[in-house]
Amino acid sequence: MTEAPRTARAPWSIRRRVVLGVVALVAVVGILIGTVSVFALRQNLLQRLDSQVQEVMRFVTSGPGGGSVPGGSDNLRSGLVIVVDVDGADPAGVVYDGPGPGTALTDEQIEQALAAPKNQVSTITIPGLGTYRMEVHRASNGVAAVGMSTSEVDTTTWTLVGIFALVTAGALLLAALGAVALTRVALRPLGRVTETAARVTELQLASGDVAIPERVPTAEADPRTEVGQVGAAINRMLGHVESALVARQHSEEKVRRFVADASHELRTPLASIRGYAELTRRIDDDLPVDAIRSLDRIESESIRMTALVEDLLELARLDEGQGLVFGEVELVRIVTDAVGDAYAAAPDHDWEVVAPEPPLTVEGDQARLHQVVVNLLANAHRHTPEGTAVTVTLAEAGDDVVLTVADDGPGIDPELQPILFERFARGDTSRSRATGSTGLGLAIVAAVVDAHHGEIRVESRPGDTRFTVRLPRRRVLAD
Ligand SMILES: Nc1ncnc2c1ncn2[C@@H]1O[C@H](COP(=O)(O)OP(=O)(O)OP(=O)(O)O)[C@@H](O)[C@H]1O
Ligand SMILES: [Mg+2]
């Protein structure tokens, strides 16, 4: 399975994006509503303050005494400032802080109050008193200034800001929790689709299984939803892959059957060719030398072809998984016998066996396992020069038995190694042909080892070629 490419920054999951998006949206909306509301309310409050200022100013400039306020001082709101400067007298100012006569303003405060722009209400700061909405009225006989503290408006404004901040924070928390819960529910079906895909990847599709029983559940394959479309597409793809695998398996079976049938059918005519060649050579003593040589060739080639046909038939049987006869097989015996035969056939090689005391048994097919050892020894003899030392080692390894055939010959061509166990893979073709090799020996070895659920490995470099076969001691039943 290919892994997702690793980038420097991990990509954002859908859940994270949705949650952050919703939170950001709620934050923006909250701040917008809060700002507009607070601003509007503040403007409204200031307007009311201004109209009160103007009302008091009207009274001050038109009232009979020019020094008192309608309704008496009890009606005064705290923070009212009145400054009057009539007929060139020293300006007098007073600040009312709730009911009572009020407090006189200092000269500096009076000066600051009178410095406000004329005939309009504006915001000024009076030292020691704070911020005021102030209006100054100048007439021919004097000056009057009226102002009201904005402290209440400020307090209301900040209270409102606080309330909005709290409400927005609460809304953000709710939105985040809601988005987490919603995405979790919305993405759950996607999780089930992923689980199905993961189960499919565990199927042994490369070897054996061609049926894909896994499908995305119907609830997650309804094309009316987005996840359903993914689910439905995966189901269609699985169906497609399954039918392609079945078709391929059928055609492979056909080829296999054909090879098996053809090999089988070739056995009889080959036996006849060989038999007649032999017979002709025996019964006619007067044959010319050339004819005798030709008959010898016909005989040897038919023997070679019979071996090839037998190998093909053997591979076809192993492919079909039939014909294996399982029993208790004593490997030390098989190995010593095979090395004995190899020594008889090639005394010019140095043969050695390293094996424990018998018995060392595995559950397997006696004839096939014998074939494995024979093929490996034949290679160590055929593809190495005279004088090569061949060591066959047999050892126990837990629940397995390990057979190693090592030689110090010239090694296997590195280009050949990756395909060594494939059919008809052989090195140096001209030489191989001369020695009658077909390139099926190791393919048979691999197929037999595979049928026993074992493992074969090769490591080769000049001077050290090593085939390692690992076989389970107990028969592994196919799952
Ligand atoms: N011990 C070895 N040393 C060097 N080369 C080897 C050795 N064993 C195998 N090979 C190479 O691997 C090739 C494949 O071996 P394999 O046994 O499959 O076929 P073969 O020996 O050529 O033919 P046959 O079907 O008669 O066994 C050989 O042709 C040879 O080039
Ligand atoms: Mg061989």
UniProtKB/TrEMBL annotation:
<keyword id="KW-1133">Transmembrane helix</keyword>
<dbReference type="Pfam" id="PF02518">
    <property type="entry name" value="HATPase_c"/>
</dbReference>
<dbReference type="InterPro" id="IPR050428">
    <property type="entry name" value="TCS_sensor_his_kinase"/>
</dbReference>
<keyword id="KW-0472">Membrane</keyword>
<keyword id="KW-0418">Kinase</keyword>
<dbReference type="Pfam" id="PF00672">
    <property type="entry name" value="HAMP"/>
</dbReference>
<dbReference type="InterPro" id="IPR036890">
    <property type="entry name" value="HATPase_C_sf"/>
</dbReference>
<dbReference type="InterPro" id="IPR003660">
    <property type="entry name" value="HAMP_dom"/>
</dbReference>
<keyword id="KW-0808">Transferase</keyword>
<protein>
    <recommendedName>
        <fullName>histidine kinase</fullName>
        <ecNumber>2.7.13.3</ecNumber>
    </recommendedName>
</protein>
<keyword id="KW-0812">Transmembrane</keyword>
<keyword id="KW-0597">Phosphoprotein</keyword>
<feature type="domain" description="HAMP">
    <location>
        <begin position="184"/>
        <end position="246"/>
    </location>
</feature>
<feature type="domain" description="Histidine kinase">
    <location>
        <begin position="261"/>
        <end position="475"/>
    </location>
</feature>
<feature type="transmembrane region" description="Helical">
    <location>
        <begin position="158"/>
        <end position="182"/>
    </location>
</feature>
<dbReference type="InterPro" id="IPR003661">
    <property type="entry name" value="HisK_dim/P_dom"/>
</dbReference>
<dbReference type="InterPro" id="IPR036097">
    <property type="entry name" value="HisK_dim/P_sf"/>
</dbReference>
<dbReference type="Pfam" id="PF00512">
    <property type="entry name" value="HisKA"/>
</dbReference>
<dbReference type="InterPro" id="IPR003594">
    <property type="entry name" value="HATPase_dom"/>
</dbReference>
<feature type="transmembrane region" description="Helical">
    <location>
        <begin position="18"/>
        <end position="41"/>
    </location>
</feature>
<keyword id="KW-0902">Two-component regulatory system</keyword>
<dbReference type="GO" id="GO:0016301">
    <property type="term" value="F:kinase activity"/>
</dbReference>
<dbReference type="InterPro" id="IPR005467">
    <property type="entry name" value="His_kinase_dom"/>
</dbReference>
<dbReference type="InterPro" id="IPR004358">
    <property type="entry name" value="Sig_transdc_His_kin-like_C"/>
</dbReference>
